[in-house]
Design a protein that fits this description.
- The protein is built from 21 helices and 18 strands.
- It is an alpha/beta fold.
- It has two domains: 248 residues, 3-Layer(aba) Sandwich (Rossmann fold), CATH 3.40.50.2000; 198 residues, Glycogen Phosphorylase B (Rossmann fold, 3-Layer(aba) Sandwich).
- It binds adenosine-5'-diphosphate and alpha-D-glucopyranose.
- Alpha-D-glucopyranose binds next to helix 1.
């Protein structure tokens, strides 16, 4: 099957969160199942810098031509990819520094509507076989609002590929105004409640839901949650009436890149046969990033880790409120890494300034540090208010770092609470809170700190966590069945 997999970010070329990881590892897994998968993304400046052997393989003249009508399709190479990736090259829209969505000051690009409309239009042309000689997609797989218009642009073609749209996070709806819709010169026929109109505005994510043949989201529990008002961001009605084409398929993780026995970012490797010495050495390395000397007491104390986008979704406010209390009640220490909301960045830094010997932070994102925090911490904090899937809890499980999570979305589908019963059954692999608030987090952290003292039980939980199968194998097969 020819599959065109479109995403606005793809690790290691450019990434702001889990979508980037998935857009790398799912196509790779599908390729492993014998499919011809082309990954396609915009030719942002940072992506062009990282790729080699760029070759122009097609031209398009956009009827919209925001800033410039000329678009080129590039084929590019990178050592992490077995196959070349495809890049939509439109310099006026993508050749700029910053993240895919915002400038260096964190403000959304003023022309995001034009950028992702143009990208989606170009992907639709390629998918439909109009750009590359002898290549047409059987399936086009569009991810999140940035790709929402792909299924819509394909709607007018009779012999079109099948259109799959995946929701990674319903909170980002790609919302624009009627005025913007008009100035984009999009087909008038799209402006209806059965099209892209959403409460008087224009939503690119809604386009993805309305015009696709199948909708997926990234965990079975989230697929149910988004059909309810509490999680639906106003789309719950649309989603529940399209339940017949909505499936939840749990994300996997790339088990080669996230493998404590061979991880190239780690100073020390370990396996589940010998967890403790490896984790202890990594803990030492992690703490040494922040302290001149690391005491024996510190190595013995529980270390909580967090790696996240600093947003409300992730419960960062809950974590920062709970930390001062737990510092008083226990000998636990904290390593927090993240970037995002400027207010949360300041709150995390203030905590570090108040407790310089016990709270360590890294504002920003480093792939190496992310791996080291996963390996060197004992407990991973992820008290998200909602979590479509979550990859970090799966990385933690694989590294024997027991996660504390909320009972929601993909967290509910991957973590089994350390209740007495689950411990006895040998199923427990982490800690589950039933609500996402400071009290629940505090009592769950205390529960974890207490269990940490029970070394044999802790070790058995670590082994169960590391035994879990979070590979893409099963999920990629589910996607393939859906494509077929
Ligand atoms: P989400 O996609 O909602 O951020 P996930 O748990 O699915 O959450 O994926 C997080 C991925 O993004 C991990 O690979 C993590 O290391 C990475 N990540 C976390 N914070 C950042 C950040 N500030 N910038 C870039 N990547 C990040
Ligand atoms: C989104 C979600 C996250 C999910 C990721 C990859 O960023 O917030 O839960 O794991 O997409 O699907």
């Amino acid at each position: 099957m020819n599959v065109l997999f479109a995403s606005s970010e793809v690790w290691p070329l450019i990434k702001t969160g889990g979508l980037g990881d998935v857009a790398y590892s799912l196509p790779k897994a599908l390729h492993g199942l014998g499919q011809d998968v082309k990954t396609i993304l915009p030719a942002y400046r940072d992506v062009l810098k990282k790729c080699t052997d760029l070759k122009i393989i097609g031209w398009m003249d956009s009827p919209f031509g925001y800033h410039t009508p000329a678009i080129r399709l590039l084929e590019a190479h990178h050592q992490q990819f077995e196959n070349p990736v495809w890049l939509i090259d439109c310099q006026a829209l993508f050749d700029r520094p910053g993240t895919p969505y915002s400038n260096d000051d964190g403000q959304d690009w003023f022309d995001n509507a034009e950028r992702f409309t143009q990208f989606s239009w170009a992907v639709a042309q390629i998918a439909n076989g109009l750009v590359v000689e002898n290549w047409k997609a059987d399936v086009v797989h569009a991810n999140d609002w940035q790709c929402g218009l792909i299924p819509a642009f394909l709607d007018t073609f009779h012999d079109r590929p099948k259109r799959i749209f995946t929701i990674h996070n319903l909170a980002f709806g790609g919302h624009f105004t009627l005025q913007q819709f008009k100035s984009l010169k999009l087909p008038d026929a799209w402006w209806s409640s059965e099209g892209v109109e959403f409460y008087g505005g224009f939503s690119m994510l809604k386009a993805g839901l309305m015009y696709s043949d199948a909708i997926t989201t990234v965990s079975p529990t989230y697929a149910k949650e988004i059909c309810t008002p509490a999680f639906g961001y106003g789309m719950d009605g649309i989603l529940s009436s399209r339940n017949y084409k909505l499936t939840g398929i749990l994300n996997g993780i790339d088990e080669k890149i996230w493998d404590p026995s061979s991880d190239s970012y780690l100073p020390y490797h370990y396996t589940k046969q010998a967890i403790l010495p490896g984790k202890r050495n990594n803990k030492h390395a992690l703490l040494s990033e922040h302290l001149d000397t690391v005491s024996e007491a510190m190595l013995n104390a529980p270390l909580f880790g967090m790696v996240t986008r600093l947003t409300e979704q992730k419960g960062v406010d809950i974590i920062t409120q709970a930390i001062p209390v737990l510092l008083k009640q226990s000998d636990a220490n904290f390593v927090l890494m993240g970037s995002g909301n400027a207010y949360f960045e300041r709150v995390v830094q203030d905590l570090r300034d108040r407790y310089p010997q016990r709270v360590f932070c890294y504002i920003g994102y480093s792939e190496k540090m992310a791996h080291l925090v996963e390996a060197g911490s004992d407990i991973f904090l992820m008290p998200s208010r909602y979590e479509p899937c979550g990859l970090n809890q799966m990385y933690s499980l694989r590294y024997g770092t027991l996660p504390i999570v909320t009972n929601t979305g993909g967290l509910a589908d991957t973590v089994i609470d350390a209740s007495e019963q689950n411990i006895k059954n040998g199923q427990a692999n982490g800690f589950m809170m039933n609500s996402s608030d400071t009290n629940a987090l505090l009592s769950t952290m205390q529960r974890a700190v207490n269990l940490y003292e029970d070394k044999p039980t802790w070790l058995s939980l670590q082994k169960t966590a590391m035994d879990g199968d979070f590979s893409w194998q099963v999920s990629a097969e589910k996607y393939l069945a859906l494509y077929q």
